[in-house]
Amino acid sequence: MQLSMNEATALKKSSLEKDLELCEKYGYDKIEIRTMDCLPEYLKTHTVDDLASYFKTHHVKPYAFNTLCFFNNRTAEEYQKVLDELRYMCEIGQRIGCDTIITVPTVELKKVTRAEIRKSCIKTLSEMADFAKPYGMRISLEFIGHPAASVNTFGEAYDIIREVNRDNLGITLDCFHFHGMGSRLEDLEKADGSKIFVVHLNDTEDFPIGSLLDEDRIWPGEGCINLDDILSTLKKIGFREDVVSLELFRPEYYEMDPEDVYRTGKEKSMAVINRIF
Ligand code: ZN
Fold it and tell me: Angle CA(232)–CA(238)–CA(243) in degrees, nearest 5?
């Protein structure tokens, strides 16, 4: 099993340029590139071709773009912006060899029924997957384990992507989000492992379900999430990406030297991964 680093993990004191170097130094096979800050910052002093040639000449490879935000239940104008961003990610992805775009559902919709959410998700994800297809890009839906998120459990997200039924549409299973709203292992057990495109590895402090925030994330193996059960279920259902990605948003880790974040992240992640894979 390979390890990927999500740029959120050492966000404050690092940069895409530095993250690439640290991936090489500490043996991360892939990187998830943040499109809202790290990539535009990098492109102030580099070109897309620079990035493409870095990946061609180094071990680390791009895994996915984070994040195409809030695609469902938007106004026509807002949705057009999502599509514009999708087009941009498809174009850059093709050039640097990154074939996956992570998208997250809208947060804090006011009084929208579950039926309306589902209907909008099915329509927009069908369109987005069809748009991305000729570029060779995949769309990966990441449910968010918080009550304010419009799609917040694995079961709901899986049901939506199954209904849309496109080869290039799958799920991002973030272990923190899986735990965050009490997603059920039974739902994961029934899923087709080939539809899980991305796994975000992390753990959390043991706050009540529904109250967890990204900042509560801690090193894999140090919290209350039953990672062994999630990973062994993924193995059982035929998860075939051969990579998981470390994604944390902890303020204390932001204050650490990024070298230490990468070193510790690798040790903690591999200790958990090696128990199962
Ligand atoms: Zn995530």
Answer: 75
